[in-house]
Amino acid sequence: EAGVAQSPRYKIIEKRQSVAFWCNPISGHATLYWYQQILGQGPKLLIQFQNNGVVDDSQLPKDRFSAERLKGVDSTLKIQPAKLEDSAVYLCASSFPAGGNEQFFGPGTRLTVL
Amino acid sequence: AQSVTQLGSHVSVSEGALVLLRCNYSSSVPPYLFWYVQYPNQGLQLLLKYTSAATLVKGINGFEAEFKKSETSFHLTKPSAHMSDAAEYFCAVSDTGGGNKLTFGTGTQLKVEL
């Protein structure tokens, strides 16, 4: 079975520019997550979708970050405008909706903001 | 609120020696607990998970972990380290009330020396 796909793998931008990341979850997985992993830290949940509805976005900086999951499949995470502290790896994961089930992670997008 | 604490950001062992990576959790409800491994420039891969069944959990690549409620611990062990085990390891907790949100520790970098 195909895993979680993410693109691009690497992105370098200057501060105040905008950037978008794309994620395609495992087929049939209703739940999709975006995590931010800053160097030296564990991943931090930014937003969780159940199908195309938002379950948890309490840690999403909504003044600059936005995410959508149209049709309950692919998802896009956008940052506008980017700040230096947004430099991180952005991980997408998916799972079945039931609690306790494994989350499958994509390879991540490494963002560098100069 | 849930949290995990991983003691030791870096652990170094000799090839063939015991691997012990420590994780303590805090949760107001019975938790689900996970260990993930991350190789350089890759996403996270599940090693094993505890979901309130057997307290001794066996995972992939010879790893296992024991859930100890009295100590609020979920330490990861492997009897004999291999060079290929060198990676970063993350402990994570989620609640059992659904939602599946993971809270990660800060990670432990495992180095395996000849």
Strand content of chain B: over 45%
Structural class of chain B: mainly beta
The unreliable regions of chain A are none
Number of strands of chain A: 11
The termini of chain B sit apart by 41 Å
Main pleated sheet of chain B: 6 strands, mixed
Percent of residues in beta strands of chain A: over 45%
Rg of chain B to the nearest angstrom? 13 Å
Question: Tags for this entry?
Answer:
heterodimer, A: 114 residues, mainly beta, 11 strands, B: 114 residues
Provide a descriptive summary of the structure in words:
The complex is a heterodimer of chains A (114) and B (114). With 114 residues, chain A is mainly beta. Chain A is built from no helices and eleven strands. In chain A, strand 5 (44-50) and strand 6 form a beta hairpin. Chain B is mostly beta strands and 114 residues long. Chain B has strands spanning 3-7, 10-14, 19-26, 31-38, 44-50, 56-58, 64-68, 73-78, 87-95, 103-104, 108-113. In chain B, the strands form two sheets. In chain B, strands 2, 4, 5, 9, 10 and 11 form a six-stranded mixed sheet that branches. The mean pLDDT of chain B is 91.
Provide a concise account of the structure shown:
By secondary structure, chain A is an all-beta fold. Helices cover 0% and strands 48% of the residues of chain A.
Which helices and strands, and how do they pair?
The complex is a heterodimer of chains A (114) and B (114).
Chain A: E1 5-7, E2 10-13, E3 19-24, E4 31-37, E5 44-50, E6 53-56, E7 65-68, E8 75-79, E9 88-95, E10 104-105, E11 109-113
Parallel strand pairs in A: 2-11
Antiparallel strand pairs in A: 1-3, 3-8, 4-5, 4-9, 5-6, 7-8, 9-10, 9-11
Chain B: E1 3-7, E2 10-14, E3 19-26, E4 31-38, E5 44-50, E6 56-58, E7 64-68, E8 73-78, E9 87-95, E10 103-104, E11 108-113
Parallel strand pairs in B: 2-11
Antiparallel strand pairs in B: 1-3, 3-8, 4-5, 4-9, 6-7, 7-8, 9-10, 9-11
